Amino acid sequence: MNFTVSHLLSPRVSTRTIHRGAVGALFFLQGLSFASWASRIPSIQQTLGLSDAELGGVLLALPAGLMLSLPIAGWLTTKIGSRKVATLAVGLYALTLLSLGFAQTTLQLMACLFVFGLVGNMANIAINTQAVGVEALYKRPIMASFHGLWSLAGFAGAMLGAVMIGAGIVPYQHFAAVLFFALAALAVASRYILPEDANTNSDQPIFAKPDKALLILGIIAFCAMICEGAMFDWSGIYFKKVILAEKAMVGAGYTAFMSTMALGRFIADWFATRYGLKRTLQLSGVLIASGLLTAVSFPYLGTAIVGFFLVGFGVSSVVPLVYSAAGKSTVLSPGVALAAVSTIGFLGFLIGPPLIGFVAGATSLRISFVIIAGMGLCVALMAGKVKTAE
Question: Would you state the pLDDT for residue 375?
Fold first, then answer.
């Protein structure tokens, strides 16, 4: 008897469910690879003897690679299809992760991080293009659930990293285990992702100027990712210096934010289906602003944690829903449209953390968080300009 995986998947499981599972696996693998690297940054810093300032300079290589790949990724995805790009890029992402563990000098680490950022964003554009296609099969929002799997992979990667560190496993051995798992899972998942992309025009230029609708989506992503970047880089510092939390509770704000961001992505699709894209984005902006203002107005441990919970819920749905809307563009193909919106949005992720530092140095950390709350209000206001087919 010729028994294959397809016997397990059919006829009881629908084709669209198979595609959804396969694309979800790619999101998980990318998130796992990134979280695995993030969990071992202190180990690699110690091994190479880098100061905090030196490490900061080294880490800039990753967004440099990411920014370079933004227009290329959209064009390449349109030209050869997201299936080929996603399969190749996710595999290379895990392989580059292993190279980070083998880096022996600062220059080697920077070169590997540059490639890590470059192939990572290629994977990001391609798998989100796949998600747009799967969402079209369902004819309702499901994009946020894919991003929820990325967040779950972040938790899994962080826990795996803690276990590896506790067991004394060096980074390259840790990363080799992740690579083996990623390649094995990719070999299966790549067989069941979408063979063709929706709304594809292979004649799209490498550099495409977004139309007004995409520009609005990009601005919304920009504002949301300023908030997201602020939470990633400054939540612990805020709890330490403003909340004056005990050492064991300094990470409570970040944990609160990450938990509700992951949870929110699994309920955002249902909410968007019931209440519409525009209302969901408006509520998201209000939650971001109210959460940050709560943490600023009542700088105590309990109220700050509640505030960061709200910020996590608010941030959770914005980027997935914006990507979903961008992928439905009638002007550009999904890959190019996603790249255009991602370029604008990611600038916010880069600008947010240093903006907080600049404002905090000139005034105070609480005032800088008020400004970030204003970005949440901008999300709510700009959402009113989003045109939908609802």
Answer: 95
pLDDT digits (tens, 9 = 90+) for 15-56: 999 999 999 999 999 999 998 998 888 888 889 998 877 887
Structure tokens at 280: 């969901």
CA distance 219 to 225: 10
249: DSSP letter: G
Contacts of 114 (CB under 8 A, 6+ apart): 61, 62, 64, 65
Residues 272, 350, single domain; the answer is yes
CA 123 distance to own-chain centroid: 11
Residues 156 and 232 in one domain: no
Q: How far apart are CA 27 and CA 346, in angstroms?
A: 18
Establish how many alpha carbons lie within 13 A of residue 255's alpha carbon, considering only the half-sphere containing its beta carbon.
Answer: 9
In a domain, 35, yes or no: yes
- The count of structural domains within the chain is 2
pTM of the prediction? Answer: 0.84
- Whether residues 139 and 244 share a domain: the answer is no
Q: Look at residue 13 in the predicted model and tell me its pLDDT.
A: 62
| 178 and 234, same domain (yes or no) | no
**Alpha-carbon dihedral 200, 205, 211, 215, rounded to 10 degrees:** 100
- Identity of the amino acid at 257: F
H/E stretch holding 198? none
Nearest Cα to Cα of residue 189 among 270, 256, 134, 250: 134
